[in-house]
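User: I've been trying to design a sequence by hand for this structure and keep getting stuck. Would you show me what you'd pick, starting by listing the structure so we're on the same page?

Assistant: Good idea, let's start from the same input. This is the structure you sent:
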């Protein structure tokens, strides 16, 4: 594995007289590291806002069409919409069902070539292909791809213009935890890309094969606790054993861009590597990150409180020493990005990384990483805001009100990030 079994906590630090060092090999116990302040880039004011229509839970990433309109899916409303910021019109595409333009559960949108888009339906395991704002085809992916990429993963991790798709499967190097392994608790992850067009319904050679991009560390590196879960199914009480990692356990994540580049983000140490379409790698340097100790306050902030308001920390094992640079949403009801990952594709091929929130910094922060692996800056939005996608020169942001309803706005891409493009 390129990364996977090392302990959480190896973060790049800047310390007087030490240069760049790692926490595990600090040059002097008497020389505490200087605090690391990110280069904060202000989010420009919106140039368009949908004021007449609110949403419930917008999936990320949204998909900007060539004419500036926006495709977006709402998890709670279970609907696919096309949005016109110019006129304010919001129109639903297709409907729930099993017909030729229908779906059972609104999944995620992945940009393909031109104005084509892949829209997933996890319930029926079908893929809808859109040309602009119209459904033109419904596919069932090649069976080997379906079985591996959807075995325990909820969604893909991007697609490219040639129809290749990226996914992930969990596995274990430690035999004692191999039984019942899933992406959520695996100590290791294998990122897989289709070698051909996964949307091709023909029998072309290699279309249904998968190639390993890389193997990285999973959330199960810190261990997990088996909790007995009781539930009612078809009027009967049933029991299952849930393997529960710490809410602050972190894992490597990846995203396939429309142009075939793949970003692989590693939290340990925090860095972003890039794989070019020709298979060559660009290895990023370790990125700066402030070390926030995981004390009881941080554990309670990360854990879901009980009905009494108390945080049940006994449910979780293996807390890391410090808050990780980024993590994965594990609660299915809370997720907006595929598999709950922290990555978003940004304009001009950049990667947005949603940093882990902390008790002292509950706002949402998005690191902007370019294709050399360099950190260009951090966009900070409010705790009730999040970036749900990007266009050619725009960012799309939702803002939640007191009723948990979302207002969608479009913001210009910050000029500071365009100067070097």
């Amino acid at each position: 594995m390129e990364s996977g079994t090392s302990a959480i906590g190896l973060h790049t630090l800047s310390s007087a007289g030490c240069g760049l060092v790692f926490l595990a090999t600090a040059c002097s116990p008497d020389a505490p590291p200087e605090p690391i302040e990110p280069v904060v880039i202000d989010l420009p004011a919106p140039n368009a806002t949908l004021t007449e229509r609110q949403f419930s839970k917008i999936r990320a990433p949204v998909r900007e069409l060539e004419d500036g309109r926006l495709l977006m899916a709402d998890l709670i409303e279970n609907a696919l919409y096309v949005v016109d910021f110019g006129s304010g019109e919001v129109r639903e595409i297709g409907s729930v069902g099993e017909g030729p333009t229908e779906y059972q559960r609104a999944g995620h949108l992945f940009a393909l070539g031109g104005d084509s888009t892949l829209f997933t339906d996890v319930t029926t395991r079908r893929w809808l292909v859109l040309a602009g704002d119209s459904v033109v085809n419904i596919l069932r992916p090649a069976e080997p791809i379906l079985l591996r990429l959807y075995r325990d993963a909820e969604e893909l991790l991007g697609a490219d213009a040639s129809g290749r798709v990226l996914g992930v499967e969990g596995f274990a190097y430690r035999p004692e935890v191999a039984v019942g392994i899933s992406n959520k608790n695996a100590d290791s992850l294998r990122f897989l890309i289709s070698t051909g067009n996964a949307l091709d319904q023909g029998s072309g050679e290699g279309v249904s094969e998968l190639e390993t991009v890389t193997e990285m560390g999973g959330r199960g590196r810190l261990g997990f606790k088996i909790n007995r879960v009781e539930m009612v199914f078809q009027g009967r009480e049933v029991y299952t054993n849930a393997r529960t990692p710490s809410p602050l356990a972190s894992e490597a994540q990846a995203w396939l861009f429309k142009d075939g580049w793949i970003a692989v983000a590693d939290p340990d140490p925090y860095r972003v590597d890039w794989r070019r379409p020709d298979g060559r790698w660009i290895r990023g340097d370790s990125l700066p990150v402030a070390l926030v100790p995981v004390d009881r306050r941080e554990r309670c902030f990360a854990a879901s409180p009980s009905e009494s308001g108390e945080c049940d920390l006994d449910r979780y094992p293996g807390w890391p020493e410090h808050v990780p640079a980024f993590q994965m949403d594990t609660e299915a009801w809370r997720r907006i990005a595929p598999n709950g990952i922290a990555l978003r594709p940004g304009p001009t091929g950049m990667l947005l990384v949603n940093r882990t929130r902390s008790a002292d910094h509950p706002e949402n922060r998005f690191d902007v990483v370019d294709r050399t692996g360099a950190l260009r800056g951090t966009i900070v939005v409010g705790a009730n805001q999040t970036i749900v996608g990007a266009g050619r020169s725009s960012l799309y942001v939702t803002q939640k009100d007191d009723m948990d309803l979302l207002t969608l706005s479009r913001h210009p891409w910050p000029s500071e990030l365009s100067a070097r493009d």
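That's my pick for every position. To get oriented when you compare it with your attempt: The longest strand covers residues 225-233. The first helix runs from residue 143 to 149.
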